Amino acid sequence: MNRDHLEGGLRHLRGRAKTAAGALRGRPGDQFDGAYDQAAGAAQYAYGEARDAVRDLRDGGEHLVEEVRARFRQASDRSQALANEALERGQHYREQAVRRSRHLAARAAENRGTTLALVAAVAFGLGWLARPTR
Question: Which SUPFAM superfamilies match (predicted)?
Answer without folding.
Answer: Hypothetical protein YjbJ (SSF69047)
